[in-house]
Amino acid sequence: MTDEEFAREMIAGVNPHIIRRLQEFPPKSKLDSQVYGDNTSTVTREHLEPNLGGLTVEQAIQNNKLFILDHHDTLIPYLRRINSTDTKAYATRTILLLQDNGTLKPLAIELSKPHPQGDNFGPISNVYLPAEQGVEASIWLLAKAYVVVNDSCYHQLVSHWLNTHAVVEPFVIATNRHLSVVHPIHNFFFHTIVTQ
Fold this sequence. Notes:
alpha+beta, 7 helices
């Protein structure tokens, strides 16, 4: 998958609303540092500035050119439990540049995993940069795959299940328990939700 397609699918995909304008650098976590340690991003200016077209990180932020797809804080609390199974995952942060043609370009992907000595030590994070040849290109492709997996899982668990099914289900249950079967709202719920 090319970087252009990766960014295009991010915008045209299931979660474009969680891409945010980068407002502080480096990105900071909102997790409790007493429990999860220092979760400040390890992405540096040196990672980004060679691909900013002559801009500094501060100038790019002021010009609304930098964006972030941040699945870090959502996943870090669960990674130790996930990675204790046969499944392995990373928490991801993706820094994107808004180009002059209106498309996004990935500049860096940070993959984080829990520290082996405990969550309070903070995560172990690695930053990966775009590459087109050799082993670095394969690693860059794998980093993009982790971002896509995180985005898909976030959509299924939070955007879809939690914000849709879990929100509506109490109303369906209450309707079935308390409204007469001849009530119009009962009929609406039955025909639009129960039969779907």
